[in-house]
Amino acid sequence: MKRLSILLFVVLFSCMTTNAQTTIKDALRNYVKFKRQAETLADEHKWVSFKYKDIHYSGDSLLFEEESELIIKYDGKNSSLFYNINSIECFYLLDKDYYKKIEKPEGSLIKYENTIFDFDRHYDALGKHGFIPRFFIDIPYYIYPISFAESMNMKQIFNEIEEREIDGELYNVYKFDNNERRVRFYVNAATNIMDSAYTEIYQYSSKVYYTFYDFSFENRQSYIDSIFNFDNKEYENYSKYDIVNSEPYYSFDTIITDKLLDFPLVDLNNDTTTLREQEGWVLLNFCTITSDYSMRQLDRYAKEKDSLGYRILEKEGIKIMAIEHKSNNMEYIEKYAKRHHSEDITYSAKGIFNAIDVNWWECYYLISPDKKVVYRAEKLEDYSEIINKLKVEN
């Protein structure tokens, strides 16, 4: 009853905010059709794997693109999901009871296992209710038509379905339009496999494309087991650290690699520097202009400078380098830097996550003058730990 009430509310809200002459009955019919296609496909296949690419634009300017791999094992309440971000070699394995993660930044291997499952807002109870996933980490995986569109960026039911022939194939095109956004999902009518998805958010001139390919229905368990075997021979040359036990499996090397030291960092004047060229203490503030969360720290720096006349960490002798790690669109980066009053500390370093482990949205590394990592955090709650590190090291 609770689910039905929520569904009816969303349907009603959607219908009130669009000019389309779609009734609640029509919207429900679209939702049911979308969900049935997903359930039929899940019943037919225990395993499904595929690759996908997401491409982000601001207007007509490319911000970034990324390729990933997803493997789903359908097994009722014991279903599981394997997820690999190819560009940074980051592997996830999830089911209803546990969350495992392996990170492979340059030269080191970090393992999280049976840690707290922290994707509740972005991942719809895979296995807990026997559902296939609706969304995961803010990216809508509607590879197969999976329920109605619902994520942090999509909260609506489709107001129209159109049959369209494209390159000799018949597609069901699921549509949503209102004065804020435009959404299209292209589902192959014969296979029920989603070929692509598109969303445009007018306010931010944001366009996102998803394309899906290399589908397979083969059992991939041996592949998954090889990735999550910490004694895998492939990992012999890595330093290894087990987060759960808080002890090195071999050793956790805090010496930064040459690849990171020499990675080009481009400022808003298009001048290039490197971490190797920096003297003294440096805070690598990894952020991305597509995330409001990581932009808040830049606002925090700006408020400090407005009220105190300086940034607190700079007063302590730390150089701040706010590094956009997903895009090299300097025009767009500069626009955001000006908006957050951080022009003098902003740099672009697209692809730097191949040289150091960087969280999806934001991440902070304190680098000592002898180029060692002495502090890492995914959020800066306050500066006490960083300042204490300086006192200890000095």
Write a concise synopsis of the structure shown.
22% of the residues lie in helices and 32% in strands. With 394 residues, it is α+β, with helices and mostly antiparallel strands.
Per-chain topology:
Blueprint: H1 2-16, H2 24-44, E1 47-58, E2 61-73, E3 80-85, E4 90-95, E5 99-103, E6 108-112, E7 160-166, E8 169-177, E9 181-188, E10 194-201, E11 206-216, H3 221-227, E12 239-242, E13 247-248, H4 258-261, E14 265-267, E15 272-273, E16 281-287, H5 292-308, H6 312-315, E17 318-324, H7 330-339, E18 346-348, E19 363-367, E20 373-377, H8 384-393
Parallel strand pairs: 6-12, 16-17, 17-18
Antiparallel strand pairs: 1-2, 1-11, 2-3, 3-4, 4-5, 5-6, 7-8, 8-9, 9-10, 10-11, 12-13, 14-15, 14-18, 16-19, 19-20
Give the H and E element order.
HHEEEEEEEEEEEHEEHEEEHHEHEEEH
The CATH architecture designation of the largest domain is Clam
Query: What is the helix fraction of residues, given as a range?
Result: 10-25%
What's the domain count? 2
Portion of residues in beta strands equals 25-35%
- Structural class comes to alpha+beta
CATH class of the largest domain: Mainly Beta
Query: Uncertain spans, ≥5 residues at pLDDT below 50?
Result: 1-22, 116-156
The value of Rg in angstroms is 23 Å
Question: Between the first and last Cα atoms, what is the distance in angstroms?
Answer: 62 Å
Q: Overall pLDDT, averaged?
A: 75
Q: Going across the major beta sheet, what is the strand order?
A: 7-8-9-10-11-1-2-3-4-5-6-12-13
Write down the CATH topology of the largest domain: outer membrane lipoprotein receptor (LolB), chain A
Form type = globular
Total beta strands = 20
How many helices? The count is: 8
